[in-house]
Amino acid sequence: MKVKVGVLFGGMSVEHEVSIISALQAIHALNRDKYEPVPIYIDKQGHWYTGEGLMDIDNYKQLPELLKKSEQVILHTNQEGKHLLINAASGLFRKKIIDEIHVAFPVTHGTYGEDGSLQGWLDLNKIPYVGCDVLSSAVGMDKIMMKTIVRGAGLPVIDYVWFYSKRWFDAQQECVELVEQRLGYPVIVKPANLGSSVGIQKADDREELVEAIESASSYSPRIIVEKMVTNLKEVNCSVIGDYEHVEASECEEVLKSDEILSYQDKYMNQAAKGMGGTSRIIPAEIGEETTRRVQELAKQTFLELGCSGVSRIDFLIDQNTNSVYINEINTIPGSLSFYLWQPKGKDFEQLTDDLIQLALKRSRERAQLTFSYDTNLLALQGKGGGKLGTKK
């Protein structure tokens, strides 16, 4: 019997469209002899849909028409442990059970999909799923927490400061002085928990700093400001595996049209290819020693954050000193970073197969753990301690 893979994508995120591209790439890469893909599209309001038409990217040009031809569903685990797609609409002649899945494959970039929210929901419903768990997803999505943990592990990160946007609105001068005293200019201003370069701006002086923070605060309640490396080379490396074994991909240098790699650079030049269409140099022209350094740091970061599945770790290289800094981790990277594995002999089909097998392995391991005790504390009510819930 084929494994039915529920590929979840879309979502309530500014990276919604990017998620569609990545997910459809993954769906078409699945080995159809082993797996049967079940598309599960999450619209921007959080409604879930399934249907064959969702697997054709051209259909998204007329999204309202596509959704009319799709079934709105609820993913539910019944008492027998089956993970069922239930028709969300009521009606006497409507089919109640639309489909069933055996494992979930989230390809949901950004908020409510990559940040642990969806992973927690899948855990509660005992649905095996591909990729990082709740903790590593949440930490990886939050740039401040990620850098705090990585720096605490002794790994190199660029100098930074952070604050809540409320603090910015209440004490703007204090925040500006904090940036100027700790970092100086130029700096990079980022929302704490978004990806795909959304809301990121460079600031060369106080006026630009204020403008950049105002912009970032519209995306996130927490802001991070980082010292900018002026003679910069940006290099990415992917890692696949889990706590027992990890493997690093080839490194890439992503080419950008400005000083900051933008959303335009990443996705808009060849939109249908997602991150696979971005201009890049593979392998990155950084020499063997620096390549090994980046790959080792990528694996260490992956393990320190407790990751599983595939992630992409982005690095900053100061070309004046050849210093390497960990910039951020993408726990559900664009296009699942398949293009970084091809030079290592792992095609997209093999990549998706590895990810599903890692998910099923974790599910088997979790099934052996104890999450509750078979006791009835309430049966002790009134025996030697009065009634529960009352004061003496």
Describe this structure in words.
It holds the Pfam family Dala_Dala_lig_N. Its cofactor is Mg(2+); Mn(2+). This is D-alanine--D-alanine ligase. The protein folds into 3 domains: 127 residues, Rossmann fold, CATH 3.40.50; 136 residues, ATP-grasp fold, B domain (D-amino Acid Aminotransferase, Chain A, domain 1); 69 residues, 2-Layer Sandwich (Dna Ligase, domain 1). 31% of the residues lie in helices and 25% in strands. The protein has 12 helices and 16 strands. A 7-stranded mixed sheet has the order 6-5-4-3-2-1-7, sandwiched between helices. Strands 14-13-12-15-16 form a 5-stranded antiparallel sheet. A 4-stranded antiparallel sheet has the order 8-11-9-10. β1, α1 and β2 form a beta-alpha-beta unit. 42% of the residues are buried.
Provide the descriptors you would attach to this structure in a database record.
392 residues, alpha+beta, Rossmann fold, D-amino Acid Aminotransferase, Chain A, domain 1, Dna Ligase, domain 1, 3 domains, seven-stranded mixed sheet, five-stranded antiparallel sheet, 16 strands, 31% helix
Oligomeric category: single chain
Give the full name of the CATH homologous superfamily of the largest domain: ATP-grasp fold, B domain
| CATH class category of the largest domain | Alpha Beta
Order of strands across the widest beta sheet?
6-5-4-3-2-1-7
Q: Categorize the overall geometry.
A: globular
- Using the 3D structure, state the CATH architecture of the largest domain: 2-Layer Sandwich
Helix content range of the residues, please? 25-40%
